Amino acid sequence: MTNIKALLLATALVASVAGTANAVTVTNTDAKNQTIGIDWGNKEKVDAVAAGKSVTFECPDGCGVTGPWGFSWMAKGSDVATWNGESIVLSNSPKT
């Protein structure tokens, strides 16, 4: 999949969940399945992100997210991340 096609897919997936307030979305544009960890402080969860798919989770008060990229961040609100197998790109969706 070309980078442009992957970007269009990720944009479409993000647009489909744009109505969900305080939801963080991680899109896996890599050809391999990936695993991410989500930490809300009082509970933790490990979630699989299939190749070419997205996972969305609530994160209204902030949460820690870690993944296969050797990178972690404190997510909040409507953060959006895309993993392409080599690096992660973070962006923020406009809040409505």
Structural features, described:
There is one protein chain. The chain is 15% helix and 43% strand. It is mainly beta and 96 residues long. The chain has a single domain, classed as Sandwich (Immunoglobulin-like), CATH 2.60.40. Strands 4-1-7-8 form a 4-stranded mixed sheet, with helices on one face. A hairpin with a 4-residue loop joins strand 2 (34-39) and strand 3 (44-49). The termini are far apart. Mean pLDDT is 76; it is low at 5-20.
Please sum up the structure shown.
With 96 residues, the protein is mainly beta.
CATH class: Mainly Beta
- When the domains are counted, the total is 1
Which range does the strand content fall in? 35-45%
Gross morphology? globular
Biggest sheet features: 4 strands, mixed
> H/E element string?
HEEEEEEEE
Helix content: 10-25%
CATH-derived architecture: Sandwich
Total count of helical runs of at least 4 residues? 1
Instruction: Kindly state the number of beta strands.
Output: 8
First CA to last CA: what distance? 31 Å
Average of pLDDT? 76
CATH superfamily: Type VI secretion system, lipoprotein SciN
Task: Tell me the strand order in the biggest sheet.
Answer: 4-1-7-8
What name does the CATH topology carry?
Answer: Immunoglobulin-like
The structural class is: mainly beta
